[in-house]
Write a structure and sequence with these properties.
Elements: H1 2-12, H2 20-29, H3 51-54, H4 58-69, E1 74-78, H5 84-90, E2 97-100, H6 104-112, E3 116-118, E4 129-135, E5 144-149, E6 152-159, E7 164-169, H7 172-180, E8 191-193, H8 195-208, E9 212-217, E10 219-220, E11 234-238, E12 241-242, E13 254-257, E14 259-260, H9 261-270, E15 273-279, H10 280-286, H11 289-302, H12 305-322, E16 331-337
Parallel strand pairs: 1-2, 1-4, 2-3, 4-9, 10-14
Antiparallel strand pairs: 5-6, 5-8, 6-7, 9-16, 11-12, 11-13, 15-16
Helix pairs in contact: 4-5, 11-12
Bound molecules: S-adenosylmethionine (SAM).
S-adenosylmethionine (SAM) is lined by residues 35, 42, 50, 52-53, 78-81, 85, 100-103, 106, 135-137, 140-141, 200.
Amino acid sequence: MSKDIKKYIREKYKNKTLHFDEYMDESLYSEFGFFNTEIVRSSKEGDFLTSPEVSKYFGAFIANFINKTNPQGDVLEIGAGTGSLAKQIDQLISQKLYLLETSLMALNKLKKENFEVEKNPEKLSNKNIDLIYMNELLDNIPCSIAINEDEKWYEKTINTDEFKYELTDIREENLEWIKKYNFHPIDNVELEIQYNSEKFLDGVINIFEPNYILIFDYGYEYKDRHKKPYASLLRTYKGHHLSTDPLMEPGATDITYDVNFSFLKSYFEKKNFEVELTYQYKFLDNYGYDEIYKKLKNNFQKTSGVDQLKIKSDLVGLEAIHNERGLGGFYTLIAKKI
Ligand SMILES: C[S@@+](CC[C@H](N)C(=O)[O-])C[C@H]1O[C@@H](n2cnc3c(N)ncnc32)[C@H](O)[C@@H]1O
């Protein structure tokens, strides 16, 4: 598979510059891409496990948030993957739940399960959607890579003969993005430019004009970036393990990166949203963690045998999505239109 995709990329970008975000886009979403194969990747059989795959209760907290927020319209999940999260939430809310998913394999599976799901947001433009949520979506939206040398920004491109990195002058829109969000260079640190995430969010906000947006992802705040001991926040996953450099196996590994939540906070504030930035474990605490945990603990004590083992496994999952040093340490951003 990776041979075919390299050939495809070489031919498509012959005599053209291949920027890193374009490479990431081809590696993840082209016909040979990581998300367009037989397996839905965010599953036990796939390559990584997300909060709704780890605990069947993750959706209950989001449903509590939705019910408390009481949006004046319907709800949209972007990047639904296996649909686990949608299933958990759908039964607990009165609003209609719509889904967006780009991976054809995942999309077809979701359709079979009778979800109203589309690939392009424009297709749902006639729906009255007031609340949008996404879990681990933005870390998969292709980013560009900027490098600062002698006070000048460059960006990474890929030499498609040898599949190795080169540096080129930065594109105007990427330079504007850095200036707009005021990201100063840090010595020996690359900057993942989320201009494509900005464009993507712009598109979604323009189409639906939602009053509420809820985002979960792994990430960081720029003020803490210097504390991270890595030059790059990009990484790859394959079969539930960290894998090689993104250029080694295009199409066969998930390419992902830590999401810059300082960018997101500033982005939503500029769009006239009030932003609350917190950690996933705190979000769970605010939306019913203790109650769900205690109920399960009580049931655990009252049961025995296989039933007790099942509850034990539920408790382990719940603790995992709440653990500050694991999934609980992910960021949660709540944006409310002012
Ligand atoms: C890391 S998975 C997370 C799946 C799910 N949200 C979960 O928590 O298990 C990211 C998913 O987002 C989808 N995706 C990526 N870009 C997208 C886009 N622009 N619109 C809709 N879905 C997208 C991918 O195909 C993939 O299924």
